[in-house]
UniProtKB/TrEMBL annotation:
Gene3D superfamilies: 3.40.50.2300. It comes from Tranquillimonas alkanivorans. The keyword Iron does not apply. Keywords: Amino-acid transport, Signal, Transport. Residues 22-362 form the Leucine-binding protein domain. Residues 1-20 form the signal peptide. Belongs to the leucine-binding protein family. This is Amino acid/amide ABC transporter substrate-binding protein, HAAT family. The keyword RNA-binding does not apply.
Length: 390
């Protein structure tokens, strides 16, 4: 009798499925033009999962397994890899990508497979706007958040603005949102310049901007929206825009790009993150651990990746399962703590509402870059971010 019972128990144990892992796909441009951003995003994602699970990398009694897929900043490849993650790898949800163009190609895949895609850190408004679907959530800020924060910092009566941006979704959506936000301040965009993403010589574009600005009266600013290498700010500053009474302005950026800000003390703008600005326990942990592990401060996209990682764990815990409908219910309106403080997924479009920071550039002896010093925190309730998916 005992032998039969033991054999039956062994057979039942053999037949019972092992506890399933929760597979999360990070689909991002690990190589390519934005790989510096991508590395930060991945490090932040892993630190966020670690922080939110108290180091266990488990949620609801199941192990979190992160798989990486490199889009190489190619929209077609990103689309195929996300389908592979959902279909072949059975990923419960995915995070990424870095590029707005890649993100826009990936959105329909989330809808086709009816799986969650948490967009981080791609910025274009259209991701949670006209191209959005109900399976898409974004922890990263959108172009409107950038634009409204920068409009608050730069706008005002009699302010005339020219813009320079990259000629793709990130740049064009950014300028469109910035123009709309500036109207509320009394400022006016008088010239727009778009150049290819791989541009390195900005002489012709700058001359067109200066010629256009020479014909206007008022406080004249050149607002630059740029991502990746070849940042034009330093090169245009070397052309002495003050000869045309033009001041350069821009939003925040990664630490490597802030070296150009050192030549522009007193420049104002708005930033998504700088590690010395937020004052909360999550950011304290991130800063301490990042210095310990990488001997450097966390950057823009490290903070964003961490926000996404924490959101993943919070959503899974709140839903109690990996079922997509349960996750959507859990995530709509969800609030969670991040290195930037509280974020909230807006139910209407799943955009994460979050703080932005009005800064003024300051030169400090111990920094080899221009430091964005806080002027004012713009909280969730300080910015009226348009819903653009309707």
């Amino acid at each position: 009798m005992h032998r039969l019972s033991t054999a039956a128990a062994a057979l039942m144990a053999f037949a019972a499925p092992a506890a399933a892992d929760i597979t999360i796909a990070h689909v991002y441009g690990k190589t390519g033009a934005l790989e510096a951003y991508a590395e930060q995003s991945h490090n932040g994602l892993m630190m966020g999962l670690e922080y939110a699970t108290d180091g266990t990398m488990e949620v609801n009694g199941e192990k979190i397994v992160v798989i990486e897929k490199d889009t190489q900043a190619d929209p077609a490849l990103g689309k195929a890899l996300l389908a592979e993650a959902y279909g072949d790898d059975d990923a419960a949800l995915a995070v990424g990508p870095v590029s707005s163009g890649v993100a826009l190609a990936m959105l329909p895949v989330a809808e086709e497979y009816e799986r969650i895609l948490i967009v981080e850190p791609a910025v274009a408004d259209s991701i949670t706007g006209e191209n959005w679907n109900r399976y898409v959530f974004r922890t990263g800020r959108n172009s409107s958040q950038d634009a409204i924060a920068n409009a608050v910092a730069l706008g005002g009566e009699d302010v005339k603005v020219a813009t320079l941006a990259q000629d793709y979704a990130f740049g064009r959506d950014g300028v469109s949102a910035f123009k709309e936000a500036l109207e509320e301040t009394g400022a006016e965009v008088v010239h727009e310049e778009y150049v290819p993403t791989d541009t390195t010589d900005f002489t012709a574009a700058a001359e067109r901007i200066f010629n256009a600005m020479d014909g206007v009266e008022g406080e004249k600013k050149l607002f630059i929206i740029w991502a990746g290498g070849g940042n034009p700010m330093g090169k245009i500053n070397a052309m002495d825009p003050s000869r045309h009474d033009v001041e350069i302005a821009t939003g925040g950026n990664i630490l490597a790009a802030l070296t150009a800000y050192k030549e522009l003390p007193g420049m104002e703008g708005a930033t998504y993150y700088y590690y010395e600005i937020p004052d909360n326990e999550v950011n304290d942990w991130l800063v301490e651990q990042h210095f310990e592990r990488y001997d450097s401060p966390p950057d823009f996209f490290t903070a964003g990746g961490m926000a996404a990682g924490i959101a993943v764990v919070e959503a899974l815990e709140k839903a109690g399962s990996t079922d997509t409908e349960d996750l959507i219910t859990a995530m709509e309106g969800m609030e969670w703590m991040t290195p930037k403080g509280t974020m909230r997924f807006r139910p209407e479009d799943h955009q994460a509402l979050q703080s932005m920071y009005h800064f003024r550039t300051e030169v400090q002896d111990d920094k080899d870059y221009g430091v964005p010093v806080l002027v004012r925190e713009l909280g969730i309730d300080d910015m009226d971010i348009p819903v653009r998916n309707q």
